[in-house]
Predict the structure.
Amino acid sequence: MRKGLLETVISGMNTRTSHAQVVNELGRAIIAGDYPVGTTLPGDVELAARFKVSRTVLREAMKTLAAKGLVVPRARIGTRVTPNTQWNLFDSDILTWYFAVGVNEEFLLHLSEVRLGFEPHAAALAARHASEADISQMMRLAVAMGDPDHSAESLAVADLKFHLSVLEASRNPFLRTLGSLIEAALVGAFKLSSPAADRGKISDVAASHIRIVEEIDRRDEDGARRAMENVIRVGRERVVQSLREGK
């Protein structure tokens, strides 16, 4: 089973096949700007020798990168790097590569803007559709976030589980597929500024997430929407402050 973005960042390990290794190394290099937009990647012979793989493995890797929108093959020209407006930023590999090479404030702000666009609505839908079992599960996950023994890693995992449970309770299959964006945002928080560093903040984080569940339990769609917006905005402010202090 493929590791999620958060697990990969926490563990720092990711076992890969030859195909995945080529995709990973070239993908990271493209995101890092080692191969700027419009440039042509080295030829098959050079890349096959560099990665010590067959031409077949290399061609399959190029197909994978093309499917992610990073490159486009051109007959008699070669494989060219596409503008980043064509990259699939919903792809978990691409998000992983972004965090591997380093993200900036603008990237994280864009990520939070997308979250504000769909997570509050997911919370509102959860208030409409969640079963009692869903609500009990969300409350257990929210309360678990208040464990004073949380490390930065375990709190990030608990946070992710909670937000994915809200998407699940929305009963909207399209929203459920957006979990990778939440995961990316939480990776940013984990790497830059975790509430676990301040024991007093852990209880505040738990309380703000419990508030979301309470509004869902009341079937208050507007209340659930506002509570979710508050959680995302507070998290964004914490990460941005950490980025600015680190400059």
